[in-house]
Amino acid sequence: MEKRHSIHSSRYFFLKEKTRTDILFDLIASLGLQQALIILSVSKIFKYFLNLIPRPLLIRLSYWVRPLIAFSLKGSTYTDPIDGKSFRKFLPYGYENPRENVLSPSTLSLERHRLLWLYLKNETDFFTKPLKLLHFAPEQAFYKRFKKLDNLEYTTTDLNSPLADVKADICNLPFDDNTFDVILCNHVLEHIPDHTKAMQELYRIMKPGGWGIFQIPQDLNREKTFEDDSITDKKERARIFGQYDHVRIYGRDYFDKLRSIGFVVEEVDYTKKIPKETVEKYRLAKGEIIPFVSK
């Protein structure tokens, strides 16, 4: 969901209004030359590898480099609510147009991950009630933490992720009807050509009374979802859809699409319940909608 709010178009990693030289002098003035150069180098290196290395390999490598990045950015300006650690800044993230100050150095969480964590913790019984959970494309920020929870019967699934217990096609899942109490399927559907079939499968395997959260990159200024499979150039796909491997950009009609499958859908603007200062401290995306579905 990180694309629901405005995306910076600057080709640099820091504030669009300033030149790279301005940024460097600001950092030197506040942090000293050595630390300023470390931060600039870390950001440049991170974006280089983000765009170069396949995601499954990037996941494996991140376990090695993450502690070094987190150490170099220690501070008190921003806090990751998932692990409680604080930093002077977060990292940039984005394949074509990097957003500034959004990727936590410690958990590698983005705005949507931190918002989801707060919602699950404060508004659901996810961490306390015995639940059978299916987690698609498990995010690093959550994987080990969910796995350690005694109340969860935890299953992960994906076609490619090294964190997946079950390698499966979301359009043809190897699970019985009415199997799972909770399904987390976040930033997956925008990759799936036949998302109707995928949604039908999610509905089929969810227990009656079960619930799920199905986040997607969404443009809330767009009424209708847009897709065009005639666009095959990777750069053009990335420009239009946000990533080359996305097949659509969802509009506000996404929620009605889920309803047409049979889900009861609640459009949760959770940042409205969070103080403005906390939204900034946690680097959340104000106005981001959590699609909470139930059966």
Output the keywords.
9 helices, Methyltransferase type 11, SAM-dependent_MTases_sf, Rossmann fold, 7-stranded mixed sheet, alpha/beta, 295 residues
Topology:
Blueprint: H1 20-31, H2 33-52, H3 55-72, E1 74-79, E2 86-87, E3 91-93, E4 99-103, H4 111-123, E5 131-136, H5 140-147, E6 152-158, E7 166-167, E8 180-184, H6 195-205, E9 206-213, H7 234-241, H8 254-261, E10 264-268, H9 276-281, E11 290-294
How would you portray this structure in words?
There is one protein chain. With 295 residues, this protein is of the alpha/beta class. It contains 9 helices and 11 strands. It has helices at 20-31, 33-52, 55-72, 111-123, 140-147, 195-205, 234-241, 254-261, 276-281; strands at 74-79, 86-87, 91-93, 99-103, 131-136, 152-158, 166-167, 180-184, 206-213, 264-268, 290-294. The strands form 3 sheets. It has a 7-stranded mixed beta sheet. It has a two-stranded antiparallel sheet with strand order 1-2. Helix 5 (140-147) links the parallel strand 5 (131-136) and strand 6. Helix 1 (20-31) packs across helix 2 (33-52) and helix 2 runs antiparallel to helix 3 (55-72). It is globular. The two termini are 23 Å apart.
> Helical content, roughly?
25-40%
Number of helices, counting only DSSP H or I runs of 4 residues or more: 9
Task: Look up the CATH topology of the largest domain.
Answer: Rossmann fold
How far is the N terminus from the C terminus?
23 Å
Rounded mean pLDDT score? 83
Question: What would the principal axes of the Cα set say about the shape?
Answer: globular
What's the total count of β strands? 11
| CATH architectural type of the largest domain | 3-Layer(aba) Sandwich
Instruction: Determine the strand fraction and express it as a percent band.
Output: 15-25%
Oligomer: single chain
Write out the strand line-up for the largest beta sheet, numbering strands in chain order: 7-6-5-8-9-11-10
Q: Secondary-structure element order, as H and E?
A: HHHEEEEHEHEEEHEHHEHE
CATH first level of the largest domain: Alpha Beta
CATH superfamily of the largest domain: Vaccinia Virus protein VP39
- The assigned structural class equals alpha/beta
The main sheet comes to:
7 strands, mixed
Low-confidence stretches: 1-41
Radius of gyration (Å): 19 Å
Q: Please, how many domains?
A: 2
